Amino acid sequence: MESKRQQKHAKLLQRELGEIFQKEARHLIGRAMVTVTRVMVSPDLGVAKVYLSVLLAEPKEIYDLVNDHKKEIRLYLSKRIGKSVRIIPELAFFPDESASYAQYMDKVIGDLNIPPAPDEEDEDEEEN
């Protein structure tokens, strides 16, 4: 379980990284929409696991680009939060699969063949 300090730090990182992907890192990701869905910080605040969701582009390509430019993204982060934190955490980026999992589950549920429930009038006739 994360401490209050870790949660506070994670929220700060999530907000700032989201803005970085919207503004400073536009040249890296092009027209793709990258959303920081979750950030988990280690107890010493030295490592941050960042979960990304990608729209309007091939996710694999975007993850490769982001991982190749990890140092540049960390530099942008240090310019934004360097005065308020002691350590700029090492960043580890991971794909957030929750959206694709939700689409898959929606498809599975939609494909179920569920017979319609009998009407209340039909149930009354069967009881008599």
Q: How would you explain this protein's 3D organization?
A:
With 128 residues, this protein is α+β, with helices and mostly antiparallel strands. The chain has one domain: GMP Synthetase, Chain A, domain 3, CATH 3.30.300. Helices cover 52% and strands 19% of the residues. Strands 1-2-3 form a three-stranded mixed β-sheet. A hairpin with a 5-residue loop joins strand 1 and strand 2. Helix 1 crosses helix 4. It comes from Algoriphagus hitonicola. GO terms for molecular function: ribosomal small subunit binding.
User: What's the mean pLDDT score?
Assistant: 87
Shape: elongated
Give a quick account of the main beta sheet: strands, pairing sense, barrel closure. Answer: 3 strands, mixed
Share of β-strand residues: 15-25%
According to CATH, what is the topology?
GMP Synthetase, Chain A, domain 3
The CATH superfamily turns out to be K homology (KH) domain
Helix-strand pattern: HHEEHHEHH
Number of strands: 3
The overall number of domains is 1
Subcellular location: Cytoplasm
Subunit structure: Monomer. Binds 30S ribosomal subunits, but not 50S ribosomal subunits or 70S ribosomes.
Family: Belongs to the RbfA family.
Organism: Algoriphagus hitonicola
